[in-house]
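Whiteboard transcription, Tuesday session. T.W. wrote the structure tokens on the left side:
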């Protein structure tokens, strides 16, 4: 467990490195590089404000949230308090990951409505479906049901000035005969209401070329998760630019994709110093991709 004191020490070390290392210095006029806060999960869940301060000082302009609870907000920080913090640090929240399992399984709209209120409080554009429980996705019929529920939720989002997006992992690319769950979601969700947040790592690891997905579904991938694949162990992430994914060719196809926002991310299958890792990924994206 990382205590606030340890967080402050680690943050100071990284920020100190920024001050003395020219290669890690950031301009105050950066384009909007985003960070999915799950990257700093051990820190964010213990110190919301301190984590956001670090993210802002590292140069990120946008963040994507996770972990929202109707009762506890973001780990004890209400949406209103969260909004004040991000405003103070000059951050924006285009998208948030909110749990959709209860809506899909039990048609529980109460939590969805709470998520919509939170997203509007934060000034977000998107509510994003982050993950599907395993029991919900065992057949193509399950995916057709999921697509139907996503369309329903998207209508509620639209009524509140928001748009719905779907974020993938690898399981959506599992084949049922000649068809994948991901293909069903793309085909049976309303193009006017539902966008997709393509996790580039999971798509590549599953054997799919993001650019081919863009060509087949132009304009639908308005958000990306940008994380790299370790060159020796595909099941591991690594810092952006350190792995095997050709991000330069993918970013060159951003217009075809429809990409409006992207978020650097590291998952649980990679455990470096996450503070330094997020800085390294930012630096590579800034200097090589945008």
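and on the right, the sequence the group agreed on:
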């Amino acid at each position: 467990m990382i205590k606030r004191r340890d967080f402050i020490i680690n943050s100071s070390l990284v920020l100190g490195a920024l001050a003395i290392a020219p290669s890690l210095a950031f301009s105050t006029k950066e384009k909007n590089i985003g960070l999915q806060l799950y990257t700093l999960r051990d820190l964010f869940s213990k110190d919301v404000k301190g984590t956001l301060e670090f993210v802002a000082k590292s140069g990120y302009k946008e963040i994507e949230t996770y972990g929202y609870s109707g009762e506890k907000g973001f780990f004890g920080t209400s949406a209103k308090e969260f909004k004040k913090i991000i405003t103070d640090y000059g951050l924006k929240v285009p998208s948030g990951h909110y749990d959709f399992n209860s809506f899909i399984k039990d048609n529980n709209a109460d939590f969805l409505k709470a998520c919509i209120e939170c997203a509007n409080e934060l000034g977000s554009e998107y509510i994003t479906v982050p993950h599907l429980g395993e029991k919900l996705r065992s057949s193509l019929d399950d995916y057709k049901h999921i697509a139907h529920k996503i369309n329903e939720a998207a209508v509620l989002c639209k009524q509140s000035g928001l748009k719905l997006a779907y974020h993938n992992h690898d399981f959506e690319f599992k084949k049922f005969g000649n068809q994948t769950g991901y293909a069903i979601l793309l085909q049976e969700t309303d193009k006017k209401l539902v966008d997709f947040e393509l996790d580039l790592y999971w798509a590549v690891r599953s054997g799919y070329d993001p650019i081919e997905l863009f060509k087949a579904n132009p304009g639908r991938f308005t958000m990306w998760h940008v994380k790299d694949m370790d060159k020796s162990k595909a099941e591991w992430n690594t810092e952006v630019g350190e792995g095997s994914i050709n991000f330069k060719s993918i970013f060159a196809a951003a217009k075809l994709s429809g990409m409006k926002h992207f978020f650097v991310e590291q998952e649980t299958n990679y455990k470096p110093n996450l503070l330094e890792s997020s800085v390294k990924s930012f630096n590579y994206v800034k200097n090589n991709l945008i």
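Someone added at the bottom: Confidence is low (pLDDT under 50) at residues 1-5, 16-30.
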